[in-house]
């Protein structure tokens, strides 16, 4: 994607989180094993597997998410390999570490800390991304406006000069199921992205604490100045429309419990073009 498109998305698909659930219990909710996704494969339009993601759990708390991208030139099982390790405080995710596990020893490349208020609403997150001689810090402050609306402000700092720069302010709108349906300017005059959903269950719906987050950084495409919206909350995404990117449409095949077992992603340009195929495997 062109650099100009990526820069535009910096100001639209950033961080934040929500939820007014004030439960103080540290005991995880009991979820049937079949409701937790164990593996996701991503294939190209011809069916060649490009990425395999596996998940491990303690109850319905996620312990780790391992991401392996197969090499195009060297065959399968060779390529990028990352592991995301999750830390909980009670029922809330308070840290995510991303490790590059392709080499020996593995290398920490990113760490994000999350802070919540007494009602378990996310109020700030600080992500540190590590390079050989410096680090980039990505800070987000969250403000709850009402049950369906939140605002956040994003700041970046380069450790080489330690100057904090204010980058963007964004308003997020949710539907009744806490899915993100719109991201735009604070005054509401501009819409940067919009999303449509069906009423089926998202494959990551029952992972404890995921519904508190509004962004998710998937390896290896980490940016030092922006983050992507976290849409794996409640329902499955039918359509996305993000400025600077092709609109996408998803077609699903579901199991008898209403969870997807396959998703076909289409880019909308010169007609619908099949971009990727995702397959979901459950416990």
* CATH fold-type name: Porin
- In terms of DSSP E residues, the strand content is over 45%
CATH architecture label: Beta Barrel
Provide the domain count: 1
Oligomeric assembly: single chain
Instruction: State the helix count.
Output: 1
**Main sheet properties:** 16 strands, antiparallel, barrel
Mean pLDDT across all amino acids:
83
- The gyration radius over C-alpha positions equals 18 Å
DSSP, total strands: 16
Strand line-up of the largest beta sheet: 1-2-3-4-5-6-7-8-9-10-11-12-13-14-15-16
CATH class: Mainly Beta
Order of helices and strands: HEEEEEEEEEEEEEEEE
Assign a percent range to the helix content: under 10%
Span of the ends, CA to CA: 36 Å
What class, by secondary structure content?
Answer: mainly beta
Poorly predicted sequence stretches spanning 5 or more consecutive residues: 1-25, 27-33
**General shape:** globular
């Amino acid at each position: 994607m062109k650099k100009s498109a990526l820069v535009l998305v910096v100001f639209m698909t950033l961080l934040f989180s929500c939820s007014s659930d004030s439960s103080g219990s540290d005991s995880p909710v009991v979820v049937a094993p079949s409701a937790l996704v164990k593996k996701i494969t991503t294939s190209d339009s011809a069916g060649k597997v490009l990425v395999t993601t596996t998940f491990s759990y303690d109850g319905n708390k996620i312990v780790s998410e391992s991401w392996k991208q197969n090499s195009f030139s060297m065959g399968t099982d060779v390529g990028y390999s990352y592991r995301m390790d999750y830390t909980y405080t009670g029922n809330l995710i308070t840290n995510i570490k991303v490790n590059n596990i392709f080499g020996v020893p593995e290398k920490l490349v990113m760490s994000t800390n999350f802070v919540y208020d007494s009602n378990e609403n996310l109020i700030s997150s600080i992500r540190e991304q590590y390079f050989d001689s410096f680090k980039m810090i990505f800070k987000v402050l969250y403000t709850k406006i009402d049950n369906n609306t939140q605002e956040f402000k994003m700041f970046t700092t380069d450790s080489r000069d330690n100057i904090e720069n204010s980058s963007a302010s964004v308003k997020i709108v949710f539907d009744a199921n806490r899915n993100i349906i719109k991201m735009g300017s604070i005054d509401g005059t501009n819409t940067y992205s919009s999303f449509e959903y069906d009423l089926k269950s998202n494959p990551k719906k029952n992972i404890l604490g995921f519904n508190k987050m509004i962004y998710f950084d998937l390896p290896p495409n980490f940016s030092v100045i922006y983050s992507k919206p976290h849409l794996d909350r409640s329902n499955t995404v039918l359509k996305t429309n993000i400025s600077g990117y092709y609109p996408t449409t998803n077609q699903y095949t579901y199991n008898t419990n209403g969870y997807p077992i396959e998703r076909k992603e289409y880019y909308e340009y010169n007609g619908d073009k099949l971009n990727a195929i995702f397959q979901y495997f459950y416990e």
